[in-house]
Each structure stands twice: as structure tokens, then as C-alpha cells.
Amino acid sequence: MTPSLLHPLFLAAIATLLLNDHLLKAHFPGVVTGKLSDLAGLTFFPVFLHTLLRVAWKAAGRWSLWACVGATVLGFALVKTVPAATIFAEGILEVFQSPLRGRGVSVRIVTDPTDLVALPLATVCLWLGRRR
Amino acid sequence: MGALDRSAVRVWGERIAVLVAGGASLATPQARWYLNADGPSGAVRTGAVVTVEASVVPTVRILSAPTPRALLAEYGLLSGPWTGRGEFFVPPGSQFEGASLRGNCTSSGPCSGACDPPAGTFVRVLRIDPVESWAISGQSGAVTLPVARATVEASGPPDVEVIPSTPSAPSVLMSRVGGTAYAFEVRWDVAPETVSLPFQWTFRATVRGYCRTAPCIPPAEARAAVRVER
User: How large is the ipTM?
Assistant: First the structure.
């Protein structure tokens, strides 16, 4: 069975991401808050992707969860290690944020290979799915 | 609550969670504003002093081969409080890329306004004057360690480089360690056991300065002593 985004762990991860990005980073800038968003985001993002897939294409099998984990890991690794991918990701986010923020939005993502330490958390959903 | 109700609550709960998760993912990066004042293209031949005016202390980008750019950025180029104007030395052969300011937007989240610099924020390059320069270098002996710590006793931020004994030697990674000391970790970019031939490298540090008038000789306190240890 595939895990739900309503699992307490994923809800906590979403809350942690919001809290860290919009409160903690401003008040406690440093290594911990710098990595916390990556850890939280990677924890829930594969399940978020999988839920979208399930709604859009009714693709709810375990293979699709593996695909979502793979896509998350690959995308994150590229953005954090290849400057061109970082710029591309910034551009995408700027497009999404522009309608709400107005023109001149500047999104900043850092190319930082040390953020890859968070990658194992992308597989948490596979482990949770196996336990259910 | 009936089974149907629980199912509906779950469906709606999941939809809300998807929206919040999507919003959190898209709104994650903190927006920033940037102001740049670019320098002239090309390297300076004899050294130069760049005068920069800015509302707050700027980031000054000087490309100085062979020191990795990240190390230069970590040094910080100033001592003392920022008075609105500063002079920055560009060593011979280096390139002054420019000066910049950046900051976080005053509000965050996907519903904040456009991200413009605060009123009164500015940075500009006032002038670039050619100057005479001096340099003093220190060098380690030949080292064969695959991982070592190199410490430089220097009177100012040193340019550092690792010189391999042969062109076929594996490349070397160098990162700054420690706080205010000029200490660096030097590490082969391969597993030591995969290197069949022993090879040597030396660590060189150079401290530079400038003079407004000739002759330009290093001051008595100038020093660049290198110590390498395991």
C-alpha cells in the first residue's frame, strides 16, 4: 500500500518546511535552518508527486511511488550540483511566483552539493509504504 | 461518523494537504534583491585600487587566479566599519569583476509584493587607479600526504595554490577550515589506494599589497609562512 500525504510524518514535514522558510531562517540563519528545509521537503515531496499522479492519471501503484522517489532524487541532485539546473529551477519558481508577487521576482536557490545529505529522506515513503 | 463521511473527510483532507504541500514547495526559496556595479573587462596588468561607494558594505568580486574564488569571498576584504566608501586592491593579473549588494525581501511568502531594493540603497564604482604592488610568498616543502592541513601565518589574506610535482598527479581539493586563521584542508580528488605512484605537492601562499608611490617594497610586518601537517 502506498502512504498518504495525510500521514503525520508528512504533515509534520510540510509544517516544518513552512515554519523554517518563513520564520526560522530569518531569525536563526545558519547551517541547521539551511539544511532543515531540504530535509523536510525531501521527506514529503515524493508522496506529494505521487498524490498528484494518482489524481491526474489514477496511477496509484507501487511502481509509480518508486518513480516519484527517483524523479525527486534526480531533480534535487541536479539542482544542487549543476549550476545550469539551479538557474533553470530558479526560473521555473519565478514563473510560478510572479503572478502573486508581481514583476521582478528574484528566486534564489543555492548550488550546494552538501545538501545532498538530505537525499535518503526521499525514500522514507517507500519504507512507510512497506510497513502498512 | 459513517464510513462515507470518513471517506469524504479523507478525500478533502488529502486535497487540502496537496494544496498546502504544493504551496510550501513553490514558496520555499526566499526572494532577494540584487544591485550590481560591474567593473571593466579584462585583468589589470600592474595592479589597481578600486574605489567603491555603497550604502552598506558591498561584496567585491575580484578574480585572482589561482586562488579559488570561494576562498576570496570568505576572506572579506575590509577591516573596520563601513563608511560609505572603500578601497579594494586588485593584484596584478587579477580581474575586478564588480561590486554588488543583495538582501532579502522585506516580506516573504508567495503573496508578498515585488522585490525591489530598499529606498536609498546604492552601489557604484567610483574610480580605478593603477598602483605599484609588492608580493611576498611562502612555500611548504615537498609533501606526499593524501590529506593534510596547511596553515599560513600571513599579515593579510593570502592567495594560495597547491602545486603538484607532475602534470599526471591527481587533482587536489582545497577548502578553508578554521575561523579567522588562514588554514586549509588539502585533499586528493581520488582514493589514495588507487594512486600507484607516489607523488608530491607543495603549498604556496602569497600576500600582496600596494603603494601609492614608487619604490614599492613590502612593509616590515608582511609575512607569509606556510606550515603543513597531517
Answer: 0.77
